[in-house]
């Protein structure tokens, strides 16, 4: 028999599709996470079939909200960009596509936005009001902007143009690896990036996520910012938890 839980979160990534029931009171998984590899050809139909497997595995009751992340801009359920998924996603009404398979309403959200919401309510930015900016440093730079607990969706701050370059092409963790940068060299680029963001938004807090955040103590102390900057706490659970919370709040 399934454990009682508040919502189901599903996080669609470039390599894996992960899901878990979420206890929103605790901001924690109510059951063990299930992960299935993302199809090599990650078209909407192929990904939808895997998401259906995840939902079937947990067999949520009809009234349980389902939140699903995508590594893309999503407005009113429609996919507007495609990163680490097939370009055929652009223009797809993902909310309608996913809802049709399990025959229930789903809530679609950008993956960085979901992570930001999770960190705001359960992680490194818990109970922090004002302007909170979460950035995920990975293949690109994802971002979430939260003002007094309210998400401003699809900010795409990794796509800011700085010194004639798209910011994430020089400051993402992938750029550090690709160019063989030392931590000190990479920190100089992060300094430029975060300075630009804080000059635009005057945030009260930066939260830094992505896999590299596990090594935050090696590069965050090298940054000289007026804004407090801290590593994310929820790691790869954030997308699932945030998606579940957003789905519950929208239902």
TrEMBL record:
UniProt superkingdom: Bacteria
Protein name per UniProt: ROK family protein
Species lineage: Bacteria, Bacillati, Actinomycetota, Actinomycetes, Micrococcales
